Structure formats: C-alpha cells, structure tokens
Amino acid sequence: MGNTVSNMLKSITGADAEEKKKQIDDAMTGLRTAAEAKMDSFYDKIELGSDSKLIPIEKIVAQFRFLQCQVSKDPAEMKKQIKTLISDISGGHWADAIADTASTIIDGLIGSSSGGITEKSSYCIAMDPLGGVYRLDQYYFAYNFKSQGLVTSMQNVVACLAVKSSIQMASLTSDALRLVVNDSFTSLPPATRARLFEHVSVAVLQVPLSQEQIAATKALAELWEKENGKKSDAEEAAKARLRITSNSEDKDKE
Fold first, then answer.
1. Measured distance CA(238)–CA(253) in Å, rounded
2. Which residue would you say has higher pLDDT here, 211 or 152?
3. How far apart, in whole angstroms, are the C-alpha atoms of residue 132 and residue 135?
4. Model confidence, pTM
5. Cα dist. 208→123, 191, 192, 212, 220 in Å?
6. Which among 57, 137, 213, 236 is placed 20 to 30 Å from 168, CA to CA?
7. Distance CA 246, CA 110 (A)
8. Taking residues 198-217, what's their average pLDDT?
9. Which of 160, 127, 141, 199 is nearest to 2 (CA)?
10. Per-position DSSP letters for 149-181, written without gaps between them
C-alpha cells in the first residue's frame, strides 16, 4: 500500500489544480487507510501474543490512537499532543520519562520519512502509582511529503498507537527484568535506570535486592550526582563571569 501511495504522490506535481486536489484527496485517503491498517496489525499482535520474545501480557487495560494530517511544517504542537497522551496513559512517576522517549521517536520519524513511510515500534515496562506493573507498547507511523505540489496543502501524516497491558509476572526473571528496564529508558542517566530497576524488581519479583546490588546502585547514583554537580558548578561560574563582564561594560559606558 505504501508504494501505491508513493506513486500517486509523484504524479501530482504535473496535474492541473482541480485534478491535483482530487489526487491529493485520494492520496490522503490512502495514507489514512495505510496508517489504520498498520495500527490494527500492531494491536492484533499484542492481543494474540504472537511475539514470544516479549514479556507476555495478561490483559489489555487501555489504548489510544492518534492520527493527524499535519498542515504546518512545525511539528511542535503535534508532538505536544502525543506526548501528553503518552504521559496520561502511562501515569505514575515514570510518565515523563516515557513521554520524553516518545517525543524523541517522533523527532526521528519526522526527520527521516521524506518521500516514504517510516515506522517505529517500541515497548517498555513501568509501574503505576499503586505498584502495579504494566507493559506499554507503542507504534509510530509517519509520511513526509516531498512533492512541491503539496507544500501548501499538507506536509506530513503521523499516526501513533499506544497499548497498555498488565503483564504475566510469573514469567519474569531478574535478568530479563534488568535488561527490559535498561533498554526501555535509554535516554535516562544510568543511575536513574538503576533506581527504576530497584523499584520494579521489588514489586515484580517480590524479592528485595541484595546488599551488593543496593551498594552498586548507590555508587552509580553518587557518581552521576557528582558528575552532574561539576557541570552545574561550571555553568554557575560561566554565568558569574558573564555578570562581571556585563557590569564592567556598563561602568565603562557611564
């Protein structure tokens, strides 16, 4: 279906105004249909549990779909909407981290999908405010128009599907949980990922971390805070130098 839409878009530039509008409408219908079909297929795979390599789910508890034909070249408002929806369905203390990851994915899609369909899927596990552990599957679809004949009418089509499910915790091991938490939040500092794993492991595995694991997590957190503190001190020193320079210039003018 993606190739069919691409061929339709390539033929639009040479058409007259009336024919061009009809072809644009047909292309948009094709893109919407393609995006909906992709989201349906992604949802079916989750519901059927067809990917045996993923952490198995127990029940799907929530989902949302987003599909937008973006007129503006600036995707900021669209990103804000998707980020808010992801944050809302995620809930809990991890919502911002998951939403930030979604925003990064959207940036990558918008920047790389010129003239063709680009897709991205991801999944992570997280914990809600009541201590329940869930799996969040996300699918993203993007198509950027590169035909100059479409510039004033449409810039891109973006779709997103998020599915929230409870998981079968009996199937999890400590190593599997550690890897999933680490890979789910690659944009976060290592120390933060370690703390997230600490919280989830107690909730999921029902086994407290060993003293060695706690010590390792604490050491990692302290290292991060130390390095982050150095950056903050350097920034403050730079700001102070700017203030001194600015004051000196003001006195010279007087």
1. 23
2. 211
3. 10
4. 0.65
5. 25, 18, 18, 11, 18
6. 213
7. 41
8. 71
9. 141
10. GGTTT--EEEEEEEEEEEE-GGG--HHHHHHHH
